[in-house]
Amino acid sequence: MAGSISRLVQLQYHFFISCSLLFYCTATDTPHPYVVYMGSTGSTPPRTPENSGTSSDLELLASIIPSENKDRVFVIQSYSHTFKGFSAMLSGEEASRLSRHPGVVSVFPDRYLPLHTTRSWDFLDVQSGLRGSKWSRLPVSSDVIIGIVDTGIWPESDSFRDTGMSAVPSRWKGVCMEGPDFNKSDCNRKLIGARFYETGEDAIRRHSTAGSSPRDTVGHGTHTASTAGGLPVPGANYYGLAKGTAKGGFPSSRLAMYKACSVAGCLSSNILKAIDDAVSDGVDVISISVGMTSFFQPDFLSDPISIGAFHANEKGILVACSAGNDGPEPFTVVNSAPWIITVAASTIDRNFESDVVLGNGVIIKGSGINLSNLTRSKTYSLVSGEDVAEKFTPAYEARNCYPGSLDQEKTAGKILVCVDSEPTVSHRVKKLVAQSSGAVGLIIVDDIEKGASMFNSGTFPFSEVSSSAGNQIFKYLNSTRNPSASIVETTDAVKLKVAPAVAIFSARGPGGLTESILKPDIMAPGVAILAASIPTIIDHGNIPVGEKPSLFAIKSGTSMASPHVAGAAAFVKSVRPQWSPSMIKSALMTTATTRNNHGKTIRSHSGVNATWHEMGSGEINPLGALNPGLVYQTSTLDYLQFLCYHGYKQKTIRSVSGVNSFACPTPSSSFFSTGSSSNLLQDFITSINYPSISIARLDTNRLGARKVISRTATNVGRTDSTYRVSVDAPEEIQVKVVPEKLIFSRMNRTASFEVSFQASSGADIGYRFGSLVWTDGVHLVRMVFAVNLI
């Protein structure tokens, strides 16, 4: 009976999750998990077992939940270190009533957020000049701590050994939680902390957590942790591919894992708890490769990552987040709050080649990863999806290998050719369709630049070829009665590829919540990244016959890009320990590179020059960020005013900040005279001291209409220096900087300037992109801008 009830609860929970993502439910108002966010702890001491807020939380719940349902008066998760709140089982009506309570900032459903899922650091080292510099010889041990919010960790990996590392920093307050398969001894001087959080039904009903521990059973968390701060591991490879030394961005850093996620995703309540704990434990940088999809983006104070990151930033902790994988369409970027550094994904200079050998001896270059045992010596019948279509199936569906579109008798034992003109049918789905139809291999015809995700088909023979190569294959198919082919095992090629380029899947700006903050912020490697993984058999189809599970994996996604930036930020923090999160963020953004390894402008997936909405300020340059010359400091006050300008009530913002005296600014009369009142909020947001500029509306029809943006730069370079500005602007926009020269001295470490934008009359509408660069002859401080002409 208990099992049946348990299953019912689980079904209700997953039904709720599905409904919440669709914005409505037609079911009755059944209780479901909600997060109750109550703002900052402010100046009050953090809640401890002796000073717990749980009793007051229970009193609050008891005042909302009817007495006949008193069994629901319990707290699932409680937040107490840097912000207040809890999660609990509530009906929709109860959640609505609770949201109106004077001590509550927001109440939102406890949803699952999806995971956004080596040579990369070698490539970055060469690109930035880090290799061979004095900074490449940092000590073996550092006291900088990177917190990873993810699926857990595999502590036995060589990436997390602590050979040569000094004692754990005395300021560390974290713990190493135990479980059936995880002991305190699994933590060491490298992996100094590990926590886990109940998920799903356990979190709701407080069932036994037997089997729960910080151990990774998915592979995602181990991969991101080793990318951010893993130690160098010589001889790393993935079944012979990508051979070399695998290492993290800042190998001497300490790591702390916060297992808030499972294969299903990450509960909002657990993400908040993980961030709350990480801040209290003493981490310096947090990496989160998780986020809402672009189809459902809550406001800034109903998004668990946004809320947690705000309070972490307030405490001096930089939070790096993945931008999402819903590209290449615009308005798909997530994790776009200005207090987050939002990371897009790029390619590196390594390519995995999976060649196709046609029956006439012609070799077609393809890409992708397959571990098959096919050879050049034996070929198989070659057919197109359209040729083996199931009866009454539209040719378009069969060409794209739709599920159910292929005749198994016609497909069995053959190599199948499919096109990729239907984006809703993923490579993984096409592979499953081919396998279930009995095909011995799959060739997908697509643009290789677009297919930059480097699909891994495991042991199933697979290759992705360009449209021109596909034309060769189709021409061959139509030229002979018995076409045949083979797909040979993958090989890797290094330094033969133009890189970086923006990955097709990487989410694009502008931000859906506000176009007046330019997002994403920056770009980092996220395609075919080799890093540590879990040596367990998750999918038998991915392991070659006679091989053991690999200790490493090759993964793609903005999930892989975010820990690169976290590692780079930790590197900067180790050299500049007094710098605030916004200073580190500014340094990374203004020194980012916009050129590829051939000295040309970085391209998008389609081969055209990338825009700032695709790559942010450019590809990270960790060495350059150590000495940026100038930085743009964005304060907590800036962020609070951002919330004012975004329409949040002053009372709400006081709760968020914990500062009862905070007051939203009042627009001056002179400001009202510069533009229409409908644009005032966006203009104010634009003028917060951010390291980039985004103007959501610049009128092309009103004579003399212009926008004026102010910024303040802080000199972190030579004491006495003078910077002069140069502007790279599109023809349709006149850009003027006043003053054109900034003079710094020992007594004057900051200087302000204004940038005015005015559109040419009659210019075509749409976004234009440019940049302004301050230089003292040594430093180049680039601030990029995006302007939407209306």
Automatic annotation (TrEMBL):
Transmembrane segments: none annotated. Gene3D superfamilies: 2.60.40.2310, 3.50.30.30, Peptidase S8 propeptide/proteinase inhibitor I9, Peptidase S8/S53 domain. Residues 1-27 form the signal peptide. Residues 219-229 have a biased composition (Low complexity). SUPFAM superfamilies: Subtilisin-like. This is Subtilisin-like serine protease. InterPro entries: PA_domain, Peptidase_S8/S53_dom, Peptidase_S8/S53_dom_sf, Peptidase_S8_Ser-AS, Peptidase_S8_subtilisin-rel, Peptidases_S8_3, S8pro/Inhibitor_I9, S8pro/Inhibitor_I9_sf. One of its GO terms (cellular component) is extracellular region. Residues 688-787 form the Subtilisin-like protease fibronectin type-III domain. The keyword Electron transport does not apply. GO terms for molecular function: serine-type endopeptidase activity. CDD domains: PA_subtilisin_like, Peptidases_S8_3. Residues 397-473 form the PA domain.
